[in-house]
């Protein structure tokens, strides 16, 4: 119908700005290298930087998949808001919850 | 209004009925679905009311034993679950369904079949919960379902875990549907700051649902795994933490409170300006206060747990955030009062219920602030003072607002008026009965009467006994008041006097179309240039700011010419939402009794139903592959089929 | 009617907006499970703890799932060019990788179970199985969606100009992958390294 047709038209238009398959493969290679780096923390001793490094790698992988494979980089910002809004709310709420629970390992009133 | 032919192609393979029983079973029309929500709520409301009658009968005197403890526990638990999940939430959903498309100038919601799906899941979820009475007993661990009691099979909480999960599916689907509808289907010119306040509150409510329901879903899955599959999430014997359940439950439970009250606030914000013949005072403040309530509402959950093990730091922090949330709530109350200030007040029934809402909700809000003070809270926790508080916000607040909405939009739905005389009788008896029932609970609670106790202890003394007797008398008043309402509703549907299209001299778009609303809602989708668009089409302002009527005819929509050759495509009816949803029965019972055959049948049913849904033929072709789009040039905001 | 009435208010398809809305809420879902798991890391009730994990094995299945996102996006890319034949190929490849991942999970669960990690054994075991189990269910649903996409494109129900359908299933699939990116690090690697230290 006309509505979706209009939306479709923009989609079609976007399709031209979309990355090429070659770019997708490049992103996948980057992701593979990052994963190899992640796994290497298990085999080699990275000392104190191991955990911060893993967190950073996780975030980078997350952003790459979301930005390229899920097209967030190229799409309407409202989609990013939905996704990162939900993610932020979850992080804040559950960090608070875990903090409250850990703060009180010795129950007193 | 110009009459426009509604083309309904009735593609073979899809039901076509527009009236009669089949039409209701297969409907994808948001108005019909809203009406079905309403009548289903009515049934559950009387069931929940009957349960509260049993509670009040038992507590009318000290040391009574009309009900056994087992029955009493089932009754108060089911009363809570019914009123929260089967009455207040779906009654709000009824209003969302009927009003959202009309108020934003659309012809349906974004996903009409998903909308029907939500309704059927709600209905079957409610029936599923109620069958537990006949299958070994209803849940009896209270609607908060605290572990470790809820893990024990004696509490029958498996039905609670599965039943609420099913209802959650319904609400989540509806939330996605309404969010997309509001964001994406507004009439041309309806910017965010021109949306009616009810639409704003609906948007906030549905975002709250969207983000709160997954949390309770997790909690219920964990509870189900513990109670049925032998997992150890909340079992202290192996190191599990029952407090985790409380956290997860209230992470959902507190937003849930606002999920129940915000729609009523939206309704009242629509009725007060109409009843006062003034625009809403401080529109932007009301909108932002509503959004702020929704946002802060996620950050106050632990105030339900001040007497649980959460530590002094958390207690102080949550006491502060709880007091803080009173600020946006107070802003709204002042805005409503100033809306009435200096207005030409007409004390019609919806207006009376709205004013009742403001005053009763204020009392409930104030007693709520007393809970925020931690030492106070320790005294009140688990007493009838708390029961009094939340009934003042949920009954005195949410329900009063929703009833105001029923009286207000009844003429929109039926084209008839509800009797004002009976309506006023309903209001005054309702107000009296409500205060008689729940007012004394403040006192008996402060004197030490515990909640969730099957027998009123005699040692609390004769004063507490008197308060309880008054509460039970209040229930009798409420019962007769409810009968007045029911009588008024039925007789008005049958033979109420004709209302005309715009009986209240209203302000928002839904009154632009004839009452009762035609199947296709609008002949021509209006172009919005103002907040309170309909009012501005009827009235202009003179120099001193007084409203003067626009000459007749000028208020008609301006695009008459183009309307006649318009073919409006409305979504086809469908059997599949109903058929698919039936699969929740085998799945639900299978999960409760851990029968893998039933679970398998249920899942297969749901998957097959999904396929039927997907491959069902669509009259106008698929959404992104239209068969016939020349006529569509004027069809706005098409809906996915 | 004015021209802007033809488009949706935000100029995007309802279904895509709905999918993103739903995905946003899914973070709250998995977040609660991950939180419970982190709280119960040490609550093993004398049973096996995180040392039971076989990191090399899980690394391989994680890698397979990650690469399935590539084939998924290639399927969408082919569909948006109207190339249904290639789209079907990539969709099957994606579903196949999903099945490899699921098979790996079933194998992993079986091994853990034999080594004494049982659902009802401890809060740690419960939270591990239920969290990864629900992720597995999401993968399973994704495979069903992919196979339906494949079948319906063969029957002609999904046409070359309807690449939105592949895109939507792709969004869901990438989301499930992204959740596993988090789970692999937070549930497997970091606790394992913390224990090794």
| Fraction of residues in β-strands of chain B | under 5%
Q: Which stretches of chain B of 5+ consecutive residues score pLDDT under 50?
A: 1-12, 553-565, 628-641
Backbone CA Rg of chain B: 25 Å
CATH names the topology of the largest domain in chain B as Cytochrome C Oxidase, Chain A
Q: Please state the structural category of chain A.
A: mainly alpha
Series of secondary-structure elements of chain B, N-terminal to C-terminal: EHHHHHHHHHHHHHHHEEHEHHHEE
Number of domains of chain A: 2
Shape of chain A: flat
> What's the β-strand tally of chain B?
6
The major beta sheet of chain A can be summarized as: none
Work out the radius of gyration of chain A: 20 Å
Alpha-carbon distance between the two ends of chain A = 62 Å
* Termini gap of chain B: 28 Å
**Which CATH-level-2 architecture of the largest domain in chain B?**
Up-down Bundle
Multimeric organization: heterotrimer
Query: Which descriptor suits the 3D outline of chain B?
Result: globular
Q: Quickly give the structural class of chain B.
A: mainly alpha
Give the proportion of residues in helices of chain A.
over 70%
Give the CATH superfamily of the largest domain in chain B: Cytochrome c oxidase-like, subunit I domain
Strand order of the largest sheet of chain B: 1-4
């Amino acid at each position: 119908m006309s509505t979706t047709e209009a939306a479709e038209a923009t989609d079609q238009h976007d399709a031209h700005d979309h990355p090429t398959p070659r770019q997708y493969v490049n992103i996948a290679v980057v992701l593979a290298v990052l994963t190899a780096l992640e796994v290497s923390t298990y085999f080699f001793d990275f000392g104190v930087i191991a955990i911060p490094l893993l967190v950073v790698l996780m975030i980078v992988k997350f952003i790459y998949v979301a930005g390229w494979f899920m097209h967030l980089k190229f799409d309407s910002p409202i989609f990013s808001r939905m996704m990162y809004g939900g993610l932020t709310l979850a992080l804040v709420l559950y960090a608070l919850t875990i903090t409250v629970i850990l703060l009180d390992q010795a129950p007193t009133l | 209004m110009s009459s426009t032919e509604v083309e309904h192609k009735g593609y073979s393979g899809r039901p076509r009925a527009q009236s009669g029983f089949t039409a209701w079973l297969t409907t994808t029309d948001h108005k019909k679905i809203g009406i079905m929500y309403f009548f289903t709520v009515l049934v559950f409301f009387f069931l929940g009311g009957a349960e509260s009658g049993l509670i009040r009968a038992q507590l009318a005197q000290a040391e009574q034993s009309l009900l056994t403890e087992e029955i009493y526990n089932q009754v108060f638990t089911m009363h809570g679950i019914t009123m929260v999940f089967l009455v207040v939430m779906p009654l709000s959903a009824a209003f969302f369904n009927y009003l959202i498309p009309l108020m934003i100038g659309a012809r349906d919601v974004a996903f009409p079949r998903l909308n029907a799906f939500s309704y059927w899941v709600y209905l079957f979820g409610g029936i599923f919960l109620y069958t537990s009475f006949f299958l070994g007993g209803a849940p009896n661990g209270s609607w908060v379902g605290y572990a470790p009691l809820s893990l024990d099979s004696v509490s029958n909480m498996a039905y609670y875990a599965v039943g609420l999960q099913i209802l959650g599916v319904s609400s989540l689907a509806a939330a996605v549907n309404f969010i997309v509808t509001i964001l994406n289907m507004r009439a041309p010119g309806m910017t965010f700051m021109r949306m009616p306040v009810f639409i704003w509150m609906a948007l906030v409510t549905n975002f709250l649902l969207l983000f709160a329901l997954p949390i309770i879903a997790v909690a219920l899955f964990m509870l189900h795994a513990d109670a049925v599959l032998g997992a150890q999430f909340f079992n202290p014997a192996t190191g599990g933490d029952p407090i985790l359940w409380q956290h997860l439950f209230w992470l959902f439970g507190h937003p849930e409170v606002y999920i129940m009250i915000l729609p009523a606030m939206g309704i009242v914000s629509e009725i007060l300006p109409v009843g006062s013949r003034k625009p809403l005072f401080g529109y932007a403040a009301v909108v932002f206060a509503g959004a702020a309530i929704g946002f802060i509402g996620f950050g106050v959950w632990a105030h339900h747990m001040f007497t649980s093990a959460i530590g002094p730091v958390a207690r102080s922090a949550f006491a502060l955030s709880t007091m803080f949330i009173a600020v946006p709530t107070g802003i709204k109350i002042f805005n409503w009062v100033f809306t009435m200030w200096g207005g030409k007040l007409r004390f019609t029934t919806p207006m009376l219920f709205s004013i009742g809402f403001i005053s009763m909700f204020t009392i409930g809000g104030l007693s709520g602030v007393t809970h925020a003070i931690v030492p106070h809270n320790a005294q009140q926790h688990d007493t009838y003072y708390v029961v009094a508080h939340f009934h003042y916000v949920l009954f005195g607040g949410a329900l009063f607002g929703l009833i105001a909405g029923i009286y207000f939009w009844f003429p929109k739905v039926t084209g008839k008026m509800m009797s004002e005389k009976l309506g006023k009788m309903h209001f005054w008896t309702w107000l009296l009965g409500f205060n008689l029932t729940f007012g004394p609970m403040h006192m008996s609670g402060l004197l030490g009467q515990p909640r969730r106790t099957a027998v009123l202890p005699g040692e609390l003394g004769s004063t507490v006994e008197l308060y309880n007797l008054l509460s039970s008398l209040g229930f009798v008043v409420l019962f007769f008041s409810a009968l007045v309402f029911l009588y008024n509703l039925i007789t008005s549907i049958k033979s109420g006097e004709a209302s005309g299209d715009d009986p209240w001299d209203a302000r928002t778009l839904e009154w632009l179309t004839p009452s009762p609303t035609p199947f296709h809602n609008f002949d021509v989708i209006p172009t919005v240039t103002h907040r309170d668009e309909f009012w501005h089409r009827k009235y202009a302002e003179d120099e001193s700011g007084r409203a003067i009527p626009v000459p007749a005819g000028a208020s008609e929509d301006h695009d008459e010419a183009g309307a006649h050759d318009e073919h409006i495509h409305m979504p086809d009816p469908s059997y599949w939402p109903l058929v698919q949803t039936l699969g929740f029965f085998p799945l639900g019972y299978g999960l409760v009794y851990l029968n893998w055959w039933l679970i398998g049948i249920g899942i297969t049913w749901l998957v097959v139903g999904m396929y039927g849904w997907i491959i069902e033929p669509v009259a106008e072709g698929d959404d992104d592959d239209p068969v016939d789009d020349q006529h569509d040039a004027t069809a706005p905001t098409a809906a996915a089929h | 009617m004015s021209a802007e009435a033809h488009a949706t208010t935000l100029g995007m398809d309802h279904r895509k907006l709905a999918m993103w809305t739903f995905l946003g809420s899914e973070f709250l879902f998995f977040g609660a499970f991950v939180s419970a798991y982190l709280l119960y890391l040490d609550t093993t009730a004398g049973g096996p703890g995180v040392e039971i994990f076989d990191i090399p094995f899980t690394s391989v299945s994680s890698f397979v799932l990650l690469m399935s996102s590539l084939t998924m996006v290639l399927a969408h890319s082919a569909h948006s060019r109207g190339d249904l034949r290639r789209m079907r190929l990539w969709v099957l490849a994606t579903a196949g990788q999903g099945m490899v991942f699921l098979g790996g999970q079933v194998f992993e669960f079986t091994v853990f179970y034999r080594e004494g990690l049982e659902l009802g054994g401890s809060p740690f075991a419960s939270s591990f199985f239920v969290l990864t189990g629900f992720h597995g269910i999401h993968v399973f649903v994704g495979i069903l969606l992919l196979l339906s996409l494949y079948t319906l494109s063969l029957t002609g129900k999904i046409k070359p100009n309807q690449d939105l359908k592949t895109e939507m299933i792709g969004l869901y699939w990438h989301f499930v992958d992204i959740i596993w990116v988090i789970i692999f690090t937070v549930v497997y690697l970091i606790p394992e390294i913390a224990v090794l230290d």
